[in-house]
Amino acid sequence: MSLQAGIFAGAAGTTALDIVTYLDMAVRGRPASGLPAEAAGELTGRAGVDLGSGEAGQSRRQGVGALLGYAAGVGVGALYGLVVRDRRLPLPVAALGLSTAAMVAGDVPLTALGLTDPREWEASSWIADIVPHLAYGLTSAVVYRRLTRP
């Protein structure tokens, strides 16, 4: 049950992260990040998979990039379910831990691929990254708790 609850919690958290991100884009008028598509292109290229060129190739990279984000979000939730199991963590601790894990899962691969360097981010970039991940962590923690409470 804990793995399944973690998967559902991660999916709910990923939805919350997306909602907060899209709200930020709508309010500030900022474009979507191109990093997920760049990462998808880099990873598929390293794996010997050609996503094509032109508009179709770019669309595939965007799709694969989004799917990688969902895999990371659901994966963090699943891992949380496996690690925590029946233990009851205080909600703030669980939310902060899940937020941090989701940020690591999202940002470390992009940094390792050389696509970004968080040391060079401006404050607005940090906020745009932290706030949606906090929404992920809180939502995931609440959903997990709700699904596993006795």
Shape: globular
- How would you state the average pLDDT, rounded? 94
Contiguous helical run count = 5
- Class based on secondary structure composition and strand pairing: mainly alpha
Intertermini distance:
12 Å
Integer count of domains: 1
Cα-atom radius of gyration: 16 Å
Low-confidence stretches: none
Q: What is the helix fraction of residues, given as a range?
A: over 70%
Sequence of secondary-structure elements: HHHHH
Q: Largest sheet at a glance? A: none
Number of strands: 0
Proportion of residues in β-strands: under 5%
List the topology elements:
Blueprint: H1 2-28, H2 35-46, H3 54-84, H4 91-112, H5 123-148
Helix pairs in contact: 1-3, 1-5, 2-3, 3-4, 4-5
Model description:
The chain has five helices and no strands. The longest helix is centred in the middle third of the chain and has 31 residues, at 54-84. With 150 residues, it is mostly helical. Helix 1 packs across helix 3, helix 1 (2-28) runs antiparallel to helix 5 and helix 3 (54-84) runs antiparallel to helix 4. The protein has one domain (2-31, 68-148).
Short description:
By secondary structure, the chain is mainly α. It is 79% helix and 0% strand. The chain is built from five helices and no strands.
Features:
single chain, 150 residues, 5 helices, 0% strand
